[in-house]
Amino acid sequence: MTTAVLVDDHPVFRRGLAVLLEELDVAVVAEAADGEAGVRAALDHRPDVVLMDIQMPGTDGVTATRRILDAWPDAHVLMLTMVADDEAVFAAIRAGALGYLLKGAGGAEIGRAVAAVAAGEAVYGPHVARRLRAFFSAGAALAAQPFPELSDGERQVLRLVAAGLGNQAVAQRLHLSEKTVRNRVSGIFAKLGVATRAEAIVKAREGGLA
């Protein structure tokens, strides 16, 4: 029997998903309501598949996925989320997720995705697959731009930070509020895995962004 760990901060959705999986002969061995607990559950139980939401309090699903794969490279993670934008999809893929499915998927589609990811196959829901096709058919390559896990706005901020500008100067240059700049800087730190402005600057320059 396939085993699974569910990581989602919505208890009603998590309970419904658990019932669905049990009907599909998938044993739910653990549930977690945030990314931090999800990492622990995945590493403690080593299931065939981890079903992971993206937007959760504390540690988000992409960060949790990266941490799971860092500690357990053979883990199979299926993102099951409401988030469908390109930034989230590519961030999840870069973190090591094998599958990406939207929560509006039907039971049969979820069952097929779980079976495929548990077997080590990559699988994407129809909506995500269409976005991937559109992205690549437009001639945009994932590796063509530095730090594809960052949004365009975050890359703009990082480029100016790497040039030595403080938050106030960045805000003035981009016609943003300082609060928005601070939020983007925090997002950059999280996505690049750095703790200080100096580390972010070094990574940006090494990546050719400066």
Describe the 3D structure.
The chain has 210 residues and is of the alpha/beta class. The protein folds into two domains: 2-137, Rossmann fold (3-Layer(aba) Sandwich), CATH 3.40.50.2300; 152-206, Winged helix-like DNA-binding domain superfamily/Winged helix DNA-binding domain (Arc Repressor Mutant, subunit A), CATH 1.10.10. The protein is 54% helix and 13% strand. A six-stranded parallel beta sheet has the order 2-1-3-4-5-6, sandwiched between helices. Helix 4 links the parallel strand 4 and strand 5 (99-102). Helix 2 packs parallel to helix 3 (61-71). It is elongated, with a radius of gyration of 18 Å. The N and C termini lie far apart (51 Å). The mean pLDDT is 90.
Topology, pairings included?
Blueprint: E1 2-7, H1 11-23, E2 26-32, H2 35-45, E3 49-52, H3 61-71, E4 77-81, H4 86-95, E5 99-102, H5 107-118, E6 123-124, H6 126-137, H7 152-162, H8 167-174, H9 178-192, H10 197-206
Parallel strand pairs: 1-2, 1-3, 3-4, 4-5, 5-6
Helix pairs in contact: 2-3, 3-4, 7-9, 7-10, 8-9
